Amino acid sequence: xxxxxxxxxxxxxxxxxxxxxxxxxxxxxxxxxxxxxxxxxxxxxxxxxxxxxxxxxxxxxxxxxxxxxxxxxxxxxxxxxxxxxxxxxxxxxxxxxxxxxxxxxxxxxxxxxxxxxxxxxxxxxxxxxxxxxxxxxxxxxxxxxxxxxxxxxxxxxxxxxxxxxxxxxxxxxxxxxxxxxxxxxxxxxxxxxxxxxxxxxxxxxxxxxxxxxxxxxxxxxxxxxxxxxxxxxxxxxxxxxxxxxxxxxxxxxxxxxxxxxxxxxxxxxxxxxxxxxxxxxxxxxxxxxxxxxxxxxxxxxxxxxxxxxxxxxxxxxxxxxxxxxxxxxxxxxxxxxxxxxxxxxxxxxxxxxxxxx
Length: 357
Ligand code: KG4
Ligand code: ZN
Description:
Blueprint: E1 2-7, E2 12-19, E3 23-31, H1 33-37, H2 44-66, E4 75-81, H3 85-102, E5 106-110, H4 111-117, H5 124-128, E6 135-140, E7 145-150, E8 157-161, H6 167-177, H7 184-191, H8 225-238, H9 246-271, E9 276-280, H10 287-299, E10 303-306, H11 317-327
Parallel strand pairs: 1-4, 4-5, 6-9, 9-10
Antiparallel strand pairs: 1-2, 2-3, 6-7, 7-8
The structure holds 5'-O-[(R)-(carboxyoxy)(hydroxy)phosphoryl]adenosine and zinc ion.
């Protein structure tokens, strides 16, 4: 089955042609980073205007690169939630118009679940073997930070998520405080490489590290507002951060964010006896996080599936790929399908990866 995936939930206009959920025939991404960099974050209306300009050329390039004609498509999949409403609406209106004009089914895709699917695009064998379940996913992006349990029945359940900022936001805001540019995640990743993670002592919220026990209902939740404020205070107190101090400051800050993600993920893997852990979302590109999760999980005798960086940040291959698993079960949507800004925490009703592939 050949599916055209479309993604426009934030600041990337993307289209991809995916065959049978796992063979990516093309993946075209038009990034708006330069447009939003001056504002230090994404401006929804500007993003929508840019999507409108780019969506048709991006879809046409994806079709051309894959050498696929519209009548060869089995369906059109589009991110319908969660995301920035003005941005989502562009992709949704385009996908619906195209679906109606060429007479193909439309499938609405949850962006959060699509990020998880990014770890499985190149690994159909993991999903195909029921012994690999339950699988635990750490989803870390600019909009989300959550630990998700994918039980054998193919449903997804959020065990915990952030109470305030997402991990990517914590990095982007730190870069803004230090005037490093946007997005902060990749810049911090690079600059922190030569730094000493033990030089500065940043708080690890909701871990009990400060002597305050964590409420049981928050054991898999996160909070990054404290570490961000702590960085702000450190910078104010120091007055200026010298070029030689910057790598240490960033390495210590990055470690404070990532260590909590890894520790809670491994605790959940123990509690739910998950043999496999997957790492996905834009922040999953982070070299410190990839190394730390791999090392610590190996020690805990868990297998880690790291989504490849090209399927970590926003892309449409994860959208077209996941849609295959829905189409196979005839789960299609109608043209009056709405776009929703918020993540429905009750993901249990969404099939993630039905057993039989
Ligand atoms: O998944 P994504 O493209 O968009 C959302 O759905 O949010 O994630 C974007 C986030 C940004 O916060 C960006 O700073 C972060 O991913 N990011 C990184 C790295 N590359 C991108 N964070 C840490 N290290 C990286 N190498
Ligand atoms: Zn995303």
